[in-house]
Each structure stands twice: as C-alpha cells, then as structure tokens.
C-alpha cells in the first residue's frame, strides 16, 4: 500500500466535484434560458423533452466530462458476469428500488406532517407524458447511458485507488444528490450502490447500463402506461366504469404483483449473498479518520453538494 498524499487526494475529489457542479450549473442556466425564451416547440411533446434535456446532454454534460477527465484515472480489471449472476443482481436491484422508494416516501411523509410542505418530483411530469417514444429515448436509453458513464465509469475509475467501498458509496451519493429532489434521492442512492458495486467488480459498464435501463423501463414506461389508461375518478363516481377499465386494471395488478414478487425474491437473494460483498484494500486507501473530510471538504465537492441541496429544497411546495 502506498503512502497517501491527502492534499493530492483532496485535489482529485475537488476536480470531480467541480465537474459535477459544472453539469448542474450550466444545465440549469440553459434550461432557465429556454423557459424564458418560451420557444414554440415547448407546446409539443417532443419539444418539451428536447428543450429540457438537450441543454443538459449537448452542452452541460460535455463540459462536465472534460473537467472530470482532468483528474487521473486507473481503469478497472475486466471480468464477466454469468447469466445467473446477472439475474441475481437484477432481482436484488428491484429489492433495492423498493427499499429506496419506501424510505423516500417515509421521509416525505414526515416532512409533510411536520413542516406542511410536499416534496416535489419533476420526473413524474415526464413519466406521465403520453408520448411513448420520447420517454423511451430520454429516460430508458439516453439517461442510463450518460448517467452510468459519468457516475460509474468516470467517477469510480478516479476514486477506487483511494478505497473501493469509498468509491462505490461516494459515487452513489453523488448520483442520488444529482437528481435534485427528495422523491428520487433514496432509491437513486440504493440503486447507485448496486450499479457501482457491479461496475467496480466487473469493470464493464454494459452491466450497470442495462440494469439501469430495465429499472427505468419499469418505473418510467410500463407502470405509468398502465396508470394513465385507468380512469380512477370515473371509477370512484360510477362503478360501471370499472368494466371499460378492467383490462388495464388487471394488467396493472399483474405488473404490480410481478414486481413485488421480484422484490421479495431480491430480498432473499440479498440476505444470501450479502456475505459475498467484499472490498479489496486500495493502493492509496484513505485513513479512516480523514476519509470523508478528504472527499467532501474541498471546494468542488462543497459547491456540488450545495447546488444539489438548493435543488432539493426548491423542489418542495
């Protein structure tokens, strides 16, 4: 194990924080500018998606990536997963999604009862959009590709030499904060832990990307598609409406039961395999007493964390 230069390590994490902060700042500024200009395209579904995500994906992300890549990286050793291992990890991911969702709902309920404010989740508006193609393009394809590249590939390649567990937890926390709202904070963190560990152990981004895509497909496409075809208000007012809604009600019920069953199987598998979770000693493992101070008490990470907290706070109503 090499002697750790804490000053150099702090500078490394500051560069990573600056890169993430740049994505947030530039993306938010351009999105606000688009909203002020009110282009005609915003009236159409594709226009709403394009003017919301194009500034982020075409300008903010490339700038942030360039800043992050200024920090030296150490590629991970490549390993493959068997089909059985992948299935086990997928089912555990579903369980972690449930845990994160329930934790988020519990915290949101507590805040609402104590402070009388509701945690907003802007992604619901996009998931509820009736246009299926832009949802698939932006939420199932582009978002997982870019997010996994940034928060797993770029970050973990530049963190793991200071501690494997630290790299997985820190990248998952940054991933969660980056969503900028309480509704996604907890499940983004729990899923980020799984995706980060998979990438750490395999060095292959395709596994975490595909897991991310499937989870987003369930949460953003399949579930909302069932719900948007069920007339809940009509059912409450006139029970005969149930008949016309019955195929969608049955479909959603089967989907929900299947998802719950996968989550329960994932819980059992997690309990069986939790003992197999291991982290090797890193060549420049940060000392326990200065670990989190080195990671987060630097200008770049402070700016990123502050920006994310502002986004979370302003999402309340």
Describe the structure.
The chain has 317 residues and is mostly helical. 76% of the residues lie in helices and 0% in strands. The chain is globular, with a radius of gyration of 21 Å. The N and C termini lie far apart (50 Å).
List keywords for this structure.
single chain; 317 residues; mainly alpha; 0% strand; globular
**pLDDT below 50 for ≥5 consecutive residues: which ranges?**
none
Helix-strand pattern: HHHHHHHHHHHH
Helix content: over 70%
Q: How would you describe the oligomerization state of the chains in this entry?
A: single chain
**Shape label:** globular
N→C terminal distance: 50 Å
What share of residues are in beta strands? under 5%
The gist of it:
The chain contains 12 helices and no strands. By secondary structure, the protein is mainly alpha-helical.
